[in-house]
């Protein structure tokens, strides 16, 4: 399947590439030129093979430095998102998201082909992974993902159509980047996490549930066929799930807050309203279709969010754009295609952004 790449998508791809390079901090590599000083001073730098060795050493130091910067930014996500300047970094702002649901089957098959293990670092999936420790998947009855509900969770339903970007940004628990915070308010972030859970843990969609948990202290739960439920609790701090993955299979000490249950006193839950959060309904369609549906869903969501941020469509219209795009693409492309290639996924991503852009512009004209 091939399609023309629109200029807007080319610009976005270029911006993602720039963000990725910026995340690596290449300007810091200059300090690693010091590896050449001693050999130069000792008059051995131009001996046979020396420049090759020094080049490899320089590259190794640069890779190590960039790796440390990336790991540090991931570990400091919470504090960076609360910082007036650091919240604009690529990971903290959400400009470098990891949309597992877009290519989940392809990624997992590649891992199996190479006998590689993928470790989750998102808090919900890390919680599930830990709760499943040493358990057989056929004993799992249900997987329950928790969600804060976002900034607008207590608004009257009929008021959501008037919600502004700033209002959707007022998250009750987290200080995050703009796109991530609005995805939390619309629950598109949770919809993607549901899809990711289906792909990563290879469980049937009807065994995956979402529950609103305003305190954000339980990150996920796993229910077994004997009636037991294993819940993962912890402070709302990404350093835990990232630190767990970095230290796995060991469990190392981490500098995160310890919960005081006497002070917490109460944990609350409520079922999500699908009229308020249509993304949770749409993700069920994606899981039923599979194939290229995840790529289309994620791309349409990104483009719909762009239009909401620029004032072209309303808050609730983002889901309308996504649904309309998915329906249209299902007629144009066989989304259920299971013979996935990276080329198919990227082409579907481009086409979905084009169709979502057309849908959103049409809604703008009608407002």
Radius of gyration: 23 Å
Q: What does the oligomeric state look like here?
A: single chain
Question: pLDDT under 50 segments (min length 5)?
Answer: 1-6, 97-101
How many distinct folded domains?
3
| N-to-C span | 35 Å
Give me the number of helical elements. Answer: 16
Rough shape?
A: globular
Which strand order does the major sheet show? 2-1-3-4
> How much of the residues is beta strand, in percent?
5-15%
Written account of the structure:
It is a single chain. Helices cover 51% and strands 7% of the residues. The protein is an alpha+beta fold. Strands 2-1-3-4 form a 4-stranded mixed beta sheet, with helices on one face. α10 runs parallel beside α13. The two termini are 35 Å apart. 35% of the residues are buried.
Summarize the structure.
This protein has 367 residues and is an alpha+beta fold. Helix content is 51%, strand content 7%.
Keywords:
367 residues, alpha+beta, Rna Polymerase Sigma Factor, Chain: A, four-stranded mixed β-sheet, 4 strands, 51% helix, disordered N terminus
Give the helix/strand layout.
Blueprint: H1 7-24, H2 37-41, H3 50-75, H4 77-82, H5 90-93, H6 104-113, H7 123-131, E1 140-147, H8 165-168, H9 178-186, H10 188-201, E2 208-212, E3 218-224, E4 229-233, H11 238-247, H12 261-264, H13 278-289, H14 293-309, H15 317-332, H16 342-366
Parallel strand pairs: 1-2
Antiparallel strand pairs: 1-3, 3-4
Helix pairs in contact: 10-13, 14-15, 14-16, 15-16
């Amino acid at each position: 399947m091939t399609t023309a790449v629109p200029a807007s998508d080319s610009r976005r791809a270029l911006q993602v590439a720039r963000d990725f390079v910026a995340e690596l901090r290449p300007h810091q590599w200059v300090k690693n030129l010091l590896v050449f000083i001693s050999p130069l001073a000792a008059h051995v730098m131009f001996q046979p093979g020396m420049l090759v060795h020094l080049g490899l050493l320089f590259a190794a130091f640069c890779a190590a430095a960039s790796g440390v910067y990336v790991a540090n930014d991931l570990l400091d996500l919470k504090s960076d998102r609360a910082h007036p300047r650091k919240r604009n970094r690529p990971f903290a702002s959400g400009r470098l998201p990891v949309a597992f649901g877009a290519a989940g089957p392809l990624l997992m098959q590649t891992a199996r082909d190479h006998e590689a293990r993928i470790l989750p670092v998102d808090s919900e999936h890390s919680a599930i992974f830990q709760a499943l420790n040493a358990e057989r998947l056929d004993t799992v009855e249900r997987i329950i993902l928790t969600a804060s509900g976002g900034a607008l969770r207590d608004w009257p339903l009929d008021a959501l159509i008037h919600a502004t970007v700033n209002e959707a940004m007022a998250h009750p628990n987290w200080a995050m980047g703009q796109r991530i915070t609005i995805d939390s308010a619309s629950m598109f972030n949770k919809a993607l996490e549901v899809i990711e859970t289906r792909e990563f843990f290879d469980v049937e969609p009807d065994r995956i549930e979402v529950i609103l948990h305003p305190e954000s202290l339980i990150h996920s739960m796993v229910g077994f066929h004997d009636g037991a439920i294993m819940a993962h609790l912890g402070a709302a701090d990404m350093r835990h799930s990232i630190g767990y993955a970095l230290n796995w299979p060991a469990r190392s000490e981490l500098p995160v807050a310890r919960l005081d249950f006497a002070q917490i006193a109460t944990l609350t839950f409520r079922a999500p309203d699908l009229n308020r959060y249509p993304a949770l309904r749409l993700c069920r369609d994606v899981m039923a279709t599979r194939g290229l549906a995840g790529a289309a869903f994620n791309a349409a969501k990104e483009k719909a969010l762009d239009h909401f941020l620029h004032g072209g469509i309303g808050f609730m219209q983002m889901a309308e754009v996504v649904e309309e795009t998915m329906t249209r693409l299902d007629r144009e492309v066989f989304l259920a295609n299971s013979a996935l290639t990276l080329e198919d996924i990227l082409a579907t991503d481009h086409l979905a952004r084009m169709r979502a852009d057309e849908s959103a512009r049409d809604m703008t004209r009608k407002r």
